Amino acid sequence: MKEQKLGTKCVQAGYTPGNGEPRQVPIIQSTTFKYDTSEDMGKLFDLEASGYFYTRLQNPTNDHVASKIAALEGGTAAMLTSSGQAANFFALFNICEAGSHIVASSSIYGGTFNLIAVTMAKMGIESTFVSPDCTDEELEAAFKDNTRAVFGETIANPALTVFDIERFAEAAHAHGVPLIVDNTFPTPVNCRPIEWGADIVTHSTTKYMDGHGVAVGGAIVDSGKFDWMAHAEKFPGLTTPDESYHGIVYAEKFGQGGAFITKATSQLMRDFGCIQSPQNAFYLNLGLESLHVRMPRHVENGQAVAEFLQKHPKVTAVHYPGLKSDPYYKRAQKYMGNGGCGVVSFELAGGRKAAEAFMKKLKLAAIETHVADARTCCLNPATSTHRQMTDEQLAAAGIPAGLVRMSCGLEDKEDLIADLAQALE
Ligand SMILES: *Cc1c(COP(=O)(O)O)cnc(C)c1O
């Protein structure tokens, strides 16, 4: 059969029941699995046979859902994690250790910025942040001999900048290291970073993939395209024997397509244990089944809301890569021809006070620390997530006090606009 289209994969990939088996992905709510002999189980521990023994390492429900996400991104292997934070940590820590260095886009999710700049620094992993719009010289200067990965977000949360995947992939590869892209906001429905040269793709599945605000989760997908052996001295964890796992050399035993995820599972998941519960993987799969139907509606609503706000006299600026006037419009067209996501941010003339008063008046859009949900929600960073900062500090961080981040849900756009109109009045 020829390669299936994306919508078909959203609905069907990852799980094909046999004769008389459950049609829906079964929730295997079991911590452990039973074997007839110790030899049978021993083969699993030696990674000589594939199978299940303990859910911290692998669970069939999670594996079905992970392989659906691998199919959607066009990767060779994938794993689920307990959260997006865990996914980004594992993706980086799988190839970095004390003494390594990361080049990262400065325009990324705040949690990921903290992870790299503060927590991983405590582990002895250095980082250099570069603007997603930096010059070639600035990008080149960011690399060091100990650089082991480049990291960016397709559409950054909350700045809504668009990452030039192809350019950063070329720079990473010129230095013999992989590009890791967090593709949470566009999802594979709107952008597949692997097609543009990304080597590893991560997700906070908490957002659009789940799409209903039900379960926190994450995923890592390997493109299978990065040749670890060609840069063996940089990635000893993949190319030399793992003494904590019977001396296995992951890149030899599992090849280019399987080494990264197998190592992350058998080492990092074993030691850190950030598993997604099978119940949450089941919820995630329900979200994935309609992802290709939902994303165009999020984009349609985001675009309509952005265009409405742009014309409104009380709104001083609108940030949305789907607007022709947006500095990222061209790049968004290149990477996401069908649109990016439903998140729009905008600034109100009256600053913090105006934002607070406006949000109080909204009837449909709820105030939440969340995005990418079926229900429209909004947030004013100055009075919530960033409330400890003064207006001056906020301006320095590129977050005006009057900025509102709005995540357009799946409602009818006429109702969303009417809600905004009455609140702005
Ligand atoms: C939310 C988010 C994360 C963190 O994911 P959690 O599931 O909340 O841990 C990482 N990256 C991006 C782009 C996000 O939006």
Could you name the key traits of this structure?
12 strands, 7-stranded mixed sheet, globular, alpha/beta, 40% helix, 425 residues, Aspartate Aminotransferase, domain 2, Aspartate Aminotransferase, domain 1, binds pyridoxal-5'-phosphate
Characterise this structure:
The strands form 2 sheets. The chain has a 7-stranded mixed beta sheet, with helices on both faces. The N and C termini lie far apart (56 Å). Strand 5 (179-182), helix 8 (187-190) and strand 6 form a beta-alpha-beta unit. It has 17 helices and 12 strands. Helix content is 40%, strand content 13%. It has 2 domains: 6-286, Type I PLP-dependent aspartate aminotransferase-like (Major domain) (Aspartate Aminotransferase, domain 2, 3-Layer(aba) Sandwich); 292-424, Aspartate Aminotransferase, domain 1. It has 425 residues and is an alpha/beta fold. The model has no long low-confidence stretch (mean pLDDT 95). The structure holds pyridoxal-5'-phosphate. Pyridoxal-5'-phosphate binds next to helix 4 and helix 5.
